[in-house]
Amino acid sequence: MANTVFCKKFQKEMEALDRAPLPGAKGQDILQTVSKQAWQEWQLLQTMMINEKQLNLMQPDSRKYVMEQMEKFFNNEATDKLAGYVSPDDIKEL
User: Are the C-beta atoms of 6 and 12 separated by less than 8 Å?
Assistant: First the structure.
């Protein structure tokens, strides 16, 4: 049976990540508090943010911004909106 974790994003027991997605204490915290599904959803949003905002992750400000947005995402706080993005939920309403 797969390992589970109480996911802070979805507030329920869910399948855990196989390994820490980041090095150090931050990676261990994510491993212990974020589900595989939440991490996959974050990866999609992160990719869109990097592309839309043309972030260069070699720059400390860009990395700081992405980490701040990640914290907001996992804590169910509002993240920055992406210009031109239409969520699948919005399409269903049209």
Answer: yes
